[in-house]
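retry 2 of 3: previous attempt timed out while embedding phenylalanine. Reduced batch size to 1 and resubmitted. Inputs unchanged:
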Amino acid sequence: MDKTTSIHGMWSSRLMFILAATGSAVGLGNIWRFPYMTSDNGGGAFVLVYLGCILLVGLPILMAEILIGRHGRVSPINTFRKLTRESGVSRHWVAIGWIGIVAGILILSFYSVVAGWTLHYAFLYVKQLAGGAAITDPGATFAALLADPLELTFWHALFMLLTVAVVALGVEKGLERAVRFLMPALFVLLLMLVVYGMTTGFMGQAATFLFKPDWSVITGGTFLSAMGQAFFTLSLGMCTMMTYGAYLPREGVSIGRVGIAVALTDTSVALLAGLAIFPIVLSFGIDPAGGGPGLIFTSLPLAFESMPFGIVYGLAFFGLLAVAAWTSSISLLEPATAFLVERFGVASRKRAALGIAGLSWLLGLLSVLSLNVWSGVRILDRDIMTFVEFIANDLMLPLGGLLIALFAGWALNRTILREQLSDMPPVLFTTWRWLMRVVAPALVLIVLVRAVL
Ligand code: PHE
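retry 2 succeeded.
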């Protein structure tokens, strides 16, 4: 196969890759999950550990994934097959690709359910614009949604169909269109919410909660959650960024710079989301700690009901959040789809996407039911949805990332690395290589082992 292009298509430009990779990274992880994980894990200390994980583990592994993908030019499993042959190392590394595919299917299953919540909320604001009832008690509105399996299943199915539609069209036609204008719009909306937060008079208190570490609330579990969140938010450890890297042109694109751009944007969106949400939470007298997965759905509507043009704002916010989730879910589905396409031919893309998404949708029904009918079912002290989230985000992604780091650091030959990172100054290259060989794997291992013991 031609080393410089992929059969799945190529990004039309460097900017397009950055948009697509940012579209993958920025999603529910930043705006739904980051604030509530911060809330549940006691604030500042969690945020600090999370930022440390992004810098020392996330960013270097992000570069490794893009690099491996761009060298391989095919889906993760076939990339590992090719690279292990080329470098003359064990074929067992191919397991990384399989971990990625399984993690992707698991994550997509609950991701689509939560994205369905945002679609439902966007629809609630559409109804309000048409004269429907206001959301006067957001807690009750949210509880009513979770209690209704049919409603949840409907939005879950709709979101999954939207995801399949884009992936079925292929990389160039499908993904590029979705990210060009809407991501910047969401960013602006978040900024406006932060400004609103400043007018509440609670910005100082919110910043203290977010950034002042209270180490007494930290446990081994906090480290694991922060590490899992770092992987989840950067779309790492399941070969998503590797797959997107496979469609990245070689000429004139610096993997180091692109990686930094994506990581910076993603981190800023998460922090902005925190700065937008916590002043609202505090100003309505809600306890910032222990908010749980409903945090943004039970707090933001309070602000939307009381601010001028709040209904339009609420519609735009939840609508754009659904779009952000959409550009991420596409990237959850793409690695497995690309693998099937390589196996069964380019003509099978639609069926491949539909098959994987169908499986994920069925699994998602477990999450739907765990919110109501099966809410009493507990596995390792968690309901089914939280359990799936835990296995995929907190265990599989870091494990996948650990193996990717070791593969890049020890198995891939140095010439390939140097060729892919040719613009990187020698000092940085050496630093990156030792982060891959020792620092990142050691940190992930310590966190995994400490949390399990
Ligand atoms: N990064 C996405 C988010 O923050 C989720 C995701 C994880 C997407 C893994 C792809 C792969 O919402």
